[in-house]
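Page header: ASSEMBLY MODEL / two components / 438 residues total.
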Amino acid sequence: MINFAQKILYQFKEYFILLFLVLICLLLISNSENSKAKKLKAFAIANFAVVEKLSSSFISLFVKDESIDELKKQNAILMLELEKVRKAEKENEELREMLSIKDTSSYNLIPTNIVSKLTNKFQGNFVIDKGSNDGIIKGMPVINTKGLAGIVMDVTENFSVVKTLYNTSLNIAVNIKRTNVNGILNFNGRNLIVKNIPTTYDVKEGDEVVTSDFSTAFPPSIPIGVIEKKELNMLGLLHTLYVKPFSDVNTSHFLFVIKVVPSKQINNLEMNLIKKP
Amino acid sequence: MINYLKPILIFIPILIIQLVVIPLISVYEIVPQLILLLLVYYTLIGGQIYGMILGFIFGLFFDLFSNGVLGASALAMTISMFIVGYFYSENRITENISTYLFLFYLFISSVIYFLIYSEVGNFNPDTKLRVILFEGTFLPAVYTTLFGILLVVFQSKRKFE
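Prediction written out in full:
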């Protein structure tokens, strides 16, 4: 009997090894969001990012110009301020007597360099060269000079992982500025889309899409993009909106982390939504 | 005794290139997977089991350092090396790695790898199948195969020398 089992095992050893390895992989995939797995990934990234940083700083000799860093930061701050002013103006018109409803304090930006990118078609992840030592915490929004770029998902002492707009697991509460229509933006592998917008809502191509007031993960009114086209669903009751982003996230070399500390309780709920779409 | 040390030592700089340099040459977010080149090469030299084990190890490290879904690359690389392993022949090693047959094997393994990796790494159920098949699988596989040409040219030169 043992001989027979040994014979079978030897004859089909490739299949048994494959089965064994596949089982381990499936076990790892199912526990990928587990805190222990995340700690292991964070540990690996923190150590490897040092090597990546050295390599990328060598490469950035050809693409980076230190003198424009500050200007880029200023540009990003101005972009955010401009959006706030525009929003305030609209609110003034609507509410007349009520002024400065929203928080008027300025955004505190942390400039960062991208150390490495995982530009897989479906998993847009960047590693940036600032971490908890610089005051970055999980859940902080990330922008570039033109608009929203993503969200901080994992933080180590000196490095952080940013989930970009081009990640199929990221869902963002958005608002169509002109008509104040809200929706959820996500990436479908090719485009940024906002699904299930009723056809009765006033939405036009060219309308600007910004982060919504309902989102506590992101400050309101951060520009994301414009509606490129709208598509009717099969029943003709709902629209799918295709959003063209302002920021070309994948070609960015510098990003800014907005140092906002959202409500922890609500933020935890939102982070759960991001994890499990 | 098959040597695991040499491929692992070569893997380290390739991993750095894959994560730091390769994104700079992405075309519409389509990136080649250089690690597959190494894996297919060693599978055609060392056989199916050797390739699968290397695929699992390399995939796991790639997942860890790229912050991808842990196990996704390991799964995709293990299965793709299992398939490539069928092309292994002790008598045709030089022919397999230094002729354009290598590109064929590389393309097949890339298609399998990207198909599995795209499926496992994609969280959006709205993603259309043609996006997964064409942009997530076929185009990156072609891009990866183009890099294989360099290896084939290098190997054929060595063969003639």
